[in-house]
Amino acid sequence: MKKAVFALLLLVVLSLGTLSYGTEAPINTPILPVDQIKTGMRGVAYTVFEGVNPEPMDVEVLGVMRNTNGPRSNIILVRLSGKKVEYTGVVAGMSGSPVYIDGKLVGALAYRIGQFSKEPIGGVTPIGEMLEINELDRTQPAEIHATPAPGRNEATKTSGPGQPSASVDAIQNVASYLQPIGAPLVFSGFTEQALNRFSSQFSQVGIVPVMGAGSVSTDTRQPEPLKPGSAVSAILVRGDMDVAATCTVTYIDANNLLACGHPLLNFGAVNMPMNKAQVMLSLASPANAFKIVNTTEQIGAFVQDRHTGIMGSFGKQPEMIPVTVTIHGVARPKTLHFEVLNNGKLTPTLMMSTVFSALQGMNEYGEDTTYRMQGRINVDGYPTVSLQNMFAPVDGGNPAAALAAAAVGERFNRIYQNPYATPGIKGVELDFNMVRDRRWARLDSARTDVTEARPGDEIVVEAMLRPYRGERIVRQVPVKIPTSTPRGTLRILVSDGDTLDRMRRLPAALGRRMDLSSTIALLNKEHANNRLYVSLLEANPEAMVDDKVMPTLPLSVMNVMEPMRGTQDMVVVGESAVNEASTPLDYAVSGAQIITLSVK
Predict the structure, then answer these.
(1) Comparing C-alpha atoms, which of 177, 48, 172, 62 is closest to residue 115?
(2) Are 327 and 434 spatial neighbours (Cβ–Cβ below 8 Å)?
(3) CB neighbour class for 342 (10 Å; exposed up to 12, middle 13-18, buried from 19)
């Protein structure tokens, strides 16, 4: 009796564990291997055109294109038919739609022919190749565990005896026109300018950007269970701004699902939220047909993004980067909270697009707006990366919001590009003070109060700057000549902060990659661009090792260090920065000049 009760409780627990994520319990469904696919076979595919329930599309096999998707990677060419698909065509968001023949799972609709095809013709990724993805890479028997084809009770029969799908020139030539069916990348809370500015960078990874065509509401419950043919979303940004990419579920078991039939971002191992989705409308368009999608509750995380599809794990909690952006200097200070995908290739672009949209989405924004920025990036186990700068628009150049966004993205790029450690970014805090004025000044001229000096003397450098539509500004900057300075000509660089930082970035420009600790140390030494700098440059070599600078090296030391010279361990430049002074300005400064002084 006790054993029976225990068995019943165990069954209930297992059932709840399977269904708590909104999936149907798997049963045995066989697969149809590629070598059994024949031209003329007929089957059925499933996708959501509207709502949450998958609907059938008739499928006719046109042939198999061998080695089209890579070595020993095939694509099954099919023609779709049915009232809805003949109207919409193959739309973005349809990738992953499962295809069945005789009740057997064939694969995922994943490719379409160009943009303007008059017929709904697509390419199917074989399910056997999708099942190779990571944990699902088991030597599969003839029958596997998968949910059955939804909707129809009877298996769809093949028409006629079928013909071998041997390579036919007319079919093989189609391969050059096949392209992955895009996954609509829905931006919610973004300005149109942000979408236009960054859409090309997202499109390069095979995602169709769509602004406001749907939304992300992770609090919305969706009781309907996932099944093959359901819509599923991968979340890249969530919170006060949202970015989500949607495709279709191909295969489900108790722990995982497969979708898309092609890579979403092709990043390999990933960690992004996996959410259910509702299709509001499948929009027909010869140029860019796509599904308008509302993303709902989270059910796990996508963990693999591979050549033949993406894989999600139910119940897994993704690791996102929490971001807080606060904007002052407006009628009502605004604070935005959102989370961004933690990925070395995509996070910098996501940070740029979110920061740009946050700044440009304010009512007080204008073409002459200037921003003072302070912030920090928290990296687990390392010092905080500080952010402090001022951004003003320049005639004919980028707006200040774009400059600020690019500066944030550049920090993330450099943090992720180190080849030695995976950065664990725990959070980002950005504070912007908006000034409704173009506070930009250009360095016009510079001079010294003397033409000759001795080591140990203090000299004064006088600089004249021209602000935008304002009276000229004159600043005097005292700087001391080091007592060790040799006789001869001393070069004095008068410049903005970015000029000095480009000099320090020389090792990276020469192809030398620093570790994460050195990268962060160098980032924290960078100069603010609302100051004018005076740097003394001595005609002796300077060595750079990681973030460490060794100026005015004697010849004897250089000879000892010669084996390191020119390697990835050390970079040597011909001049040494022996002293530096600066003066603050409430302007974003640009420009650089060299003046000379004779040291006696």
Answers:
(1) 177
(2) yes
(3) buried
| pLDDT tens readout for residues 396-414 | 678 899 999 999 999 999 9
> Cβ atoms within 10 A of the Cβ of 525, count?
13
pTM (global) more than 0.70: yes
- Report the C-alpha gap between 474 and 462 in whole angstroms: 7
CB contact set of 362 (below 8 Å; sequence gap of 6+): 327, 330, 334, 434
pLDDT tens sequence across 211-233:
555 667 767 788 899 999 999 99
DSSP state, residue 267: -
Question: Within a 10 A sphere around the Cβ of 287, how many other Cβ atoms?
Answer: 6
How far, in Å, CA of 509 to CA of 373, rounded?
A: 26
Tokens of 220: 């919305």
Collapse the DSSP code of 264 into the 3-class scheme (helix H, G, I; strand E, B; otherwise coil) and give the result. Answer: coil
Distances 551 to 510, 545, 594 between C-alpha atoms, Å: 19, 11, 19
Length of the chain: 600
What H or E segment, with its residue span, contains residue 336?
A: strand 334-341
Residue 417 burial (CB < 10 Å; 0-12/13-18/19+)? middle
- Element holding 259 (H helix, E strand): strand 256-259
Residues 6+ apart with CB under 8 A from 159: 40, 41, 42
Sketch out the chain's domains with CATH numbers.
24-317 (no CATH), 321-435 (3.10.20), 440-599 (no CATH)
pLDDT, residue 551, reads 62
**Token pair for 79:** 């023609």
> Residue 104 and residue 95: Cα distance in Å, rounded?
19
Which of 297, 222, 279, 270 has its CA nearest to residue 92?
279
The token duo for 409 is 């993205």
Name the nearest CA neighbour of 573 among 555, 550, 599: 550
Could you count the other beta carbons within 10 Å of the beta carbon of residue 196? 11
Max alpha carbon distance in the chain (Å)?
104
E strand or H helix that includes residue 14: helix 2-19
